[in-house]
Amino acid sequence: MYFSAQEEYGLRCLLRVAVAGPDESQTINEISRAEGISAPYAAKMMRILRSGGLVTSVRGQSGGYRLARPAGEITVSETLGVLGSPLFEGEFCDKHSGNEETCTHAIDCSIRSLWRGVQRIVDRVLSRTTIQDLLRQEPQMDVFVKDLVLWATANEPARVEVRRFG
Question: In this predicted model, what pLDDT tens digit does every residue of 19-32 receive, in sequence order?
């Protein structure tokens, strides 16, 4: 479970394009300078975002990149899906079985249950957060995220009793 550099920088590049607004294009050099990343890496991020249908490229003197849709219609979940993979994938257990062919806990695994639950909450939050939402200042975003997490966890079963083993 991790958030890759590609997901972080790709999201930042997309946000930089959104900050410019729907009528302005951002060049690779502008994105690169603003985000403190190399121009080749910014170009790579923009190619991925363009192939995922999140930005369009504009040719000419005022060329660069623009959002393919309004910022309020692009979710963080969709963006991260274009840039990478979920925090927890079901195949994770198959890929991390240690020295065995299959994980020794393939049938009964409390850790897998934990990661599935965390992924469910993360998915709910990210699917409700748009690029437009990320244009807020940090104090307003803190309030937004707090409310969103409360909403995302509201439908989860309440834990009445915590039993400790051992």
Answer: 999 889 999 999 99
Tell me how far apart the alpha carbons of residues 30 and 17 are, in angstroms, rounded to a whole number.
10
Domain extent listing, the chain: 5-154
pTM, two decimal places = 0.79
Residue 82, pLDDT above cutoff 50:
yes
Q: Cβ neighbours of residue 78 under 8 Å, at least 6 residues apart?
A: 54
Fold observed for domain 5-154 = Arc Repressor Mutant, subunit A (1.10.10)
